[in-house]
From TrEMBL:
GO terms for molecular function: long-chain fatty acid transporting porin activity. It comes from uncultured Craurococcus sp. Keywords: Cell outer membrane, Membrane, Signal, Transmembrane, Transmembrane beta strand. It is a multi-pass membrane protein. This is Long-chain fatty acid transport protein. Gene3D superfamilies: Outer membrane protein transport protein (OMPP1/FadL/TodX) (2.40.160.60). It comes from the Bacteria. GO terms for cellular component: cell outer membrane. It is found in: Cell outer membrane. Pfam families: Toluene_X. InterPro entries: OMPP1/FadL/TodX. Belongs to the OmpP1/FadL family.
Amino acid sequence: MAGGAAIAALLGAQAAEAAGYAVREQSAVAQGNSQAGAAARGDDPSMMHFNPAALGWLNGTQVVSIGSGIFPSPEARSGSANRAAVLGGSVIGGSLGGDAGVDAFVPAFYASTELSDQWRLGLAVTSPWGLVTKYPEDYIGRYHALTSSLRTINIAPTLAWRPLPNLSIGVGLQIQYATARLSNAVDFGSVGALNPALFAAGFRPGRFDGRATISGDSTDIGWQIGAQWEPMSGTRLGLSFRSAIFQRLEGDASFEGVPGPLALSPNFQNTGATAKLTTPEVLNFGVTQRIDPRWTVMAGAEWTNWSRFRDLTIDFANGRAPSVTEERWRDSVFLSAGAEYRATETVTLRTGFAWDQSPVPNSTRTPRIPDSDRYWLSVGATWQALPNLALTAAYTHVFVNDTTVDLRDRGPSDSNFLRGDLRANYRASVDIVALQARFTF
């Protein structure tokens, strides 16, 4: 029943942007330390998201429910757009789009149970990948992007084994559902202006704007494996690996506002569509060190294989040419450090700092994900309200480097030909508030 409720909540949630399209907000306990050392921690069921071996240290039966509010604010502060030179190079008028971020609520659910001294069984329901950006109809980059939405749900049954008192090994199955929706404006006036007959009939760049929308979903599976080791009392090391998941999204491509003379063209008729989405591999290392009964310090390093994302290609069932957007993302790292202080028998305080490297190169950055390097600063606390109930809260402010979208039309064979040139300077920040309740039985 609890797992079903968690899945229903995730289906209604909007995922939010992090570096790339990762959603890191899966644990309020880890959030308080900017996720430092999360791959080495085994004090909370939510740590199985970062390393399935964390499950091996948990006693009894435990259930965790988490809700994270994410408040991004990517906003273009200046910019301009122009149509292709062969179409006259006219200015694309409109607004800078305002705040393109969409506030999000991201829930997560975890459960663990002790099968024996050596074996533990767990379940995690999370949303590890996603983004939502949304621009108004008059945005100057509307031919590149209006709405971009990716949401995922991971259901991960997990098993951990402790062959030695100081060693835990875990493995998890990742059952992932993904759904995506992309839309942008279409300059049908420019499309028609390329045809002499339609040009004579009054088609001109910017005269007939419509909309293209592509949506689809898919379910596929992957896996996760990890280990945690205590070489000495108070020191724990953790290493985990999450596999790539190869999704093939299937859905529909639809067009609105197509002028009559173009309505019969197969290029602008509603049809089926497919696109490949590969969520990347993640290698996560963590270390925690207890200094004394009150102080613990931790650090982490995470590598994500974003270089799998070379382009966004959409194939159409009616045989029209694929839509291709070049991406050429690069691998990235997430480095974090934090500390935890046990202030009283019932209150634990946390803080942490992290550097989150963007995988998006300057040359292919788009308004769908105007991403840049970012820096996390976090605080958090846990209160043991009752012997079987622990409440945790965390707050993170993410400082995002200013960045530029600079997309150029390079002629009729270029994917930006009918989208035009776009230059926009972005400023952004993100605020994250997470609340968590852990019940033990």
